[in-house]
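Session log. Operator J.P. requested a structure for one protein chain; no other inputs attached. Running the standard single-chain path with token output.
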Amino acid sequence: MDFWRTAANPWGQDVLIGVSWDLMYAAIIVAAAFLVGHAVWIKTRPAEAHADIGDVPAGLPERIPRHSVAARIFHWTMSGSMLVLLVTAFVPVLGLQFPWVSVHWIAGVVLTATIVYHVVHSIGWQDFWAMFQVGVDEGMAHLKHLMDAKAPAPKAGKYPFDHRLFHHALVVVGLGVIGTGLLMMVRIDTPLWTSNPYMLADSTWGIVYVLHGLCGVSLIFLTASHIYFALRPEKWWITWSMLRGWVDRDSYLAHHDPEKWVVTEGGGSAVSGGTSPSETGADADASLKARSAAE
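Structure written below.
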């Protein structure tokens, strides 16, 4: 299997022109093998133990806001642009030819704009560093849970350990594909400028192409795994939160630690609904225990 492609430039020099398409097929095969393997593993895995509910905060509302309207618009805009980029980058290689260049770079600009917005929004209006906490103890607890179903999965704050790992991987790959993509836009005509293929030396352009391609094939695996986990039945509670903006109280108590993700009814961080304001934490505790007993 080759890892990159080369060609001779007008001066007869062998220069890089991009990653080998073998890596694209390898990424598709690895992604498919991972998804099938994980599905089989989950199917054959013994029943998992669950951590104790613990003390339920008094006055906890029925609906816990998780994603604002702005965050959801960002997520779906970014997701749409990412899918368009993957389709326009790799589908022509698979044999379906269409005029993809303009669609590709426009989707790249949309992706870049959403990421810039996300960074500004995270720094100015969200807890920016909450996503970047390492959580070694939490990671070790997750590892124990993966190796032994009897070991309960640790409860997280707002952002679980595996979500943070995925986010970090996406930050590296996403910034790589955006940075190299913006450089490559210099080589095409746009309404704002004419192409300038001589801004960098051929050898340097080759490195840019290879880095862009490596990030692109990495996104095949990351995107496929993200969609797969979002569609798994045990993850629907969090997938729905990206559509409607909130998680229900039972899911919050089952998967999150109220001491790490503090929710207060009167503090603006929770949306009441479905229950009267006088419902107590004891009622919530009884509700979740009843549901657990039924299961």
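Operator note: The mean pLDDT is 84.
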